[in-house]
Specification:
734 residues, alpha+beta, 60% helix, elongated
């Protein structure tokens, strides 16, 4: 019963680490494809055999992991479709009811020529059914052609499916039945004479005596009448207010996310300074310039980025590590608060303990790493334009330094509250509310650096001797890949050891120079180099002299964008690494911009859906308002009879829309803000540190549009009503 058909044959399974060949296998088709997963489990369990599912077929029948995703997607699409259908039903219901009331005299004529109540009811039902079935047929045909067009673009064969037709017909025709029943009660209970006269009687609440309201004080008697008029039918007022309020709340909720993303984009632009994108490999003390430049992207990539229309400026980066004579003198400037309460400070504290022998290093390699990091200090060289840009961040001293002067980048914003004994410590910059004092460098303090020109020459000699010795000891390499790996490990170790020997030798010979800090800047205004970095900044020619480099020894490229094109840069600015991965450069700017753009794109998609739902709600409100005005023709005529002018009458009805708009916007803003405070503020805010931003522009736009919609839904139908006071006074209603 479970198996429709099966046949025997061989089977080759390549879905595992070790492919298998089965000479005796069964290929099975189940009777119910929607239960193939359950049947598969039963067969393999009952007979103790192994088996594989046809994954494509499994997914097509909405089973398995991929099939479950398809099932959820289909249910989500159906949910959205039925939301649209609900709004469509409301619009159709109001349209049919309004149409029937407008044809009240025609139904009276039918009664006069002998039509029975049953026949009249059949006429009304058939009219509604024709409208519903015609609309459903048009929708089905349109949906089919749209699906076929999308399927043709995707290369998928699309056909017509009866399954969704059934619930659609049930929903629309079921609601039609109740709508027609409600309308028929009014029509079939009219006498022929009353119907011909247009006299239909629908119970309407009377105006109640109330105290003076705020609207009466603001807008006079028209405002007072409008306020009392909307309160005599609280059910309709509440439906309108909540329908519009929920739409506004959804818009506020979504646009607050977009507003926050836009605010974060501006904050990101400020954080990443002038050159948003940078490809840099700072020249280390135990690296050659060839090794540094070989790790950078290709010249072709640099050229592609430079040729982008959005790039306003492209420049080389000159950065190098210099060696400190006394690391403890430099380390002593770090504050205890920074070392004890910040993440990066905790790292420096552990490294200093290893340097002093107070804590053992994990391995010899890690000990070399500690020595390297504790004795180095970063230096940046800038041309005249970039150097002058640092002036906006100057905290003390001057940029016009002497021959023995330097400018110090002294970062200050760091994350605090960290377990200093944790083995994993990370830096999370950019949170101004978590600042701790960083270091106590002052103008006039000194920094002593090793003669880097002599150091680089000595390193070249040391490494040249090592390469010759290694080749002599190991001879010609039979396996270049393995020999290369072992050579690289030995070479890296020798470089670190050679750097230590050269530094100590130069210090012993007195080959170092002391520089005076003549200026302090709080941040690097050219590009983001880390919030808690201590680094030296020099004019370019001075940089060459201090670091022992020259103009050819660039260590990267940096780009200023007049407008940053995220998607375009993803196509142009990506390149493949030797390991086969992709890299966008060391700057986190692109990665964070991509996240924000995805965030905004997703919010934009939700916003499109929200706007569509709000539009459907708006059409429903317009139809309801038009129907309500038609029912109030007698009331409006009575107002005209007692001396109310057309202008006053228009003002009264328009003020009803204004009052409804004010209440709806108040509800929408409160709900939207509360939703964001709970869902967005507490979740994203606490996890990512993202602040909540109220979308004032959206709120103002919502107030204006909702007021125009409500007032327009009154103005347009009212202008279209014929001015026949005698006829209107004979119309039904209270």
């Amino acid at each position: 019963k479970r198996v429709r058909c099966a046949y025997a044959g061989s089977y080759y399974d390549d879905g595992h680490d070790v492919p298998k060949q089965y000479d005796n296998a069964l290929y099975v088709n189940t009777t119910n494809p929607y239960r193939m997963d359950a049947v598969f489990e039963q067969l393999t369990s009952e007979y103790g055999v192994e088996g594989d599912m046809n994954e494509d077929l499994e997914m097509a029948y909405m089973q398995g992991d991929g099939g479950n995703l398809i099932l959820v997607s289909i249910l989500f699409i159906l949910l959205i479709s039925f939301i649209f259908a609900i709004f469509g039903i409301g619009i159709v219901r109001n349209s049919i009811q309004l149409s029937n009331l407008e044809q009240i005299k025609d139904y009276g004529n039918l009664r006069c020529i002998g039509a029975t109540k049953g026949q009249l009811k059949t006429v009304v039902d058939l009219e509604g059914m024709i409208l519903e079935l015609t609309g459903n047929a048009i929708g089905m045909v349109t949906g089919l052609f749209c699906s076929m067009a999308v399927g043709a673009l995707l290369g998928v064969r699309v056909g017509f499916h009866l399954v969704p037709v059934v619930p659609i017909l049930i929903a629309f025709l079921g609601d039609l039945f109740f709508a027609m029943e409600e309308t028929c009660k009014v029509i079939v209970n009219l006498t022929p004479v009353s119907a011909i006269r247009g006299e239909y009687r629908i119970h309407k609440e009377k105006l109640k005596r109330r105290g003076n309201s705020l609207f009466g004080k603001l807008f006079g008697v028209e405002g007072e009448y409008a306020y009392k008029s909307i309160l005599r039918n609280p059910g309709r007022f509440l439906k309108t207010v909540w329908a519009m309020g929920l739409g506004i709340a959804a818009c506020i909720a979504v646009m607050s996310i977009v507003s926050t993303a836009n605010g974060l984009t501006k904050q990101l632009d400020r954080q990443f300074r002038y050159y948003k994108i940078s490809y840099e490999h700072i020249l280390g003390t135990n690296e050659t310039i060839d090794e540094v430049q070989s790790s950078l992207p290709s010249r072709e990539l640099f050229q592609r980025i430079s040729d982008m229309d959005e790039v306003g400026e492209a420049k080389r980066i000159y950065s190098s590590m210099a060696l400190l004579v006394d690391w403890e003198e430099h380390y002593a400037h770090y504050t205890d608060t920074y070392l004890d309460e910040s993440m990066r400070g905790a790292v420096w504290k552990r490294l200093s303990e290893i340097m002093r022998g107070e804590r053992a290093a994990v391995s010899e390699e890690s000990a070399r790493f500690v020595v390297k990091n504790m004795t180095e200090l970063a230096c940046y060289g800038y041309d005249e334009e970039d150097y002058a840009r640092l002036g906006s961040a100057l905290e003390a001293g001057t940029l016009d330094i002497s021959e023995n002067g330097v400018v110090l980048i002294n970062g200050s914003t760091v994350m605090k509250d960290v377990d200093a004994d944790s083995e994993e410590v990370y830096l999370l910059p950019g949170y101004d509310d978590m600042e701790v004092p960083f270091n106590d460098y002052q103008v006039g303090d000194t920094v002593s650096l090793v003669d880097m020109t002599r150091f680089r020459n000595m390193m070249e000699e040391e490494l040249s001797d090592f390469r010759k010795r290694y080749q002599k000891e190991h001879g010609e390499w039979q396996n270049p890949e393995e020999a290369g790996n072992s050579y690289q490990e030995a070479y890296d170790t020798e470089k670190m050891d050679a750097a230590v020997r050269c530094r100590q030798r130069l210090i012993g010979e007195g080959a170092f120079r002391t520089y005076t800090i003549e200026g302090i800047v709080s941040r690097n205004e050219n590009y983001f180099t880390g919030e808690d970095e201590v680094a030296l900044v020099l004019p370019l020619e001075r940089y060459y002299d201090v670091t022992g480099t020259d103009e050819s020894m660039m260590t990267g490229m940096q780009y200023h964008f007049d407008r940053f094109p995220v998607n375009k840069f993803m196509r142009i600015g990506i390149y493949e690494t030797e390991e086969g991965g992709s890299w966008f450069g060391q700057s986190l700017y692109l990665v964070e911009r991509m996240m924000l753009e995805s965030f905004k794109l997703g919010s934009g998609g939700v916003m499109v859906f929200v706007v569509f739902v709000v539009m459907m709600t708006t059409f429903n409100i317009i139809n309801t308002t038009a129907s309500n005005l038609h029912l109030r023709k007698k009331e409006l005529a009575q107002l005209r009879v007692i001396g109310v002018s057309k202008r006053q009458l228009m003002k009264m009805l328009m003020l009803e829309g204004v009052i409804t708009s004010i209440v709806a916007n108040g509800i929408g803003m409160i709900l939207g803000t509360a939703l964001n405070r709970i869902a967005f503020g507490r979740i994203l805010g606490s996890l990512l540190g993202i602040p909540f931003r109220f979308p004032f522009g959206t709120a103002i736009l919502g107030i204006v549009l909702s007021t125009l919609i409500l007032c327009g839904s009154v103005y347009v139908p009212l202008k279209g009503l014929k001015s026949d006071m005698a006829g209107d006074l004979a119309t039904g209603g209270e």
